[in-house]
Amino acid sequence: MDSLIPFTTSGSLVDCVDRKMLVILRDGRKLHGVLRSYDQFANLVLEDTVERIYHENLFAESWHGLFLIRGENVVLLGEIDLDREDDIPLRQVEYHELEPFHKSAIELKKQNDDAKSHILYKQKGFCKEGGEGDGY
Question: Where does this protein chiefly localize (predicted)?
């Protein structure tokens, strides 16, 4: 009967080993690489890892090689369909060409998040993230 219960732990990652995966981190980075190993905390080891950044219909990659990711920083983990990967209507450019656009988008998002946090703090009484009352 226990075999009918789906995996809800890191054991469910066993089928993902040796496959090309997309990992989105809490800080917004998007990593593509081959999942080589994981542990009970969902810490991941990616091989041949690249970080992708996007702007409109363009993307760029920065090579990172072997990458260790702490499990608590993973927001999303998904397998990349190798048959459909090349069908994406995006054009690859050099990383240095997109980096200024990427950095400005990150800064704009930070400003928007700060404004939202300020409004929630002043008008609704929510505490600021990382401030007083944040348990860790």
Answer: cytoplasm
pLDDT digits (tens, 9 = 90+) for 21-30: 999 999 899 9
Q: For domain 2-93, give the fold.
A: SH3 type barrels. (2.30.30)
* Measured torsion, CA atoms of residues 85, 99, 28, 40, in degrees rounded to the nearest 10: 70
Q: Where are the domains of the chain?
A: 2-93
User: What's the rounded Cα separation, in Å, for the pair 64 and 32?
Assistant: 10
Nearest alpha carbon to residue 102 among 59, 71, 135: 59
Taking residue 4's Cβ as centre, other Cβ atoms within 10 Å add up to: 5
CB 128 within 8 Å of CB 117: yes
How does pLDDT run across 92-135, given as a tens digit for each residue?
A: 999 999 999 999 999 999 999 889 988 888 888 887 666 555 44
> Which residue bears the tokens 């090689």?
65
Question: What pTM value is reported for the model?
Answer: 0.77
Long-range contact set of residues 45-48: C-beta below 8 Å, sequence gap at least 24: 45/69, 46/21
Q: What's the chain's length in residues?
A: 136
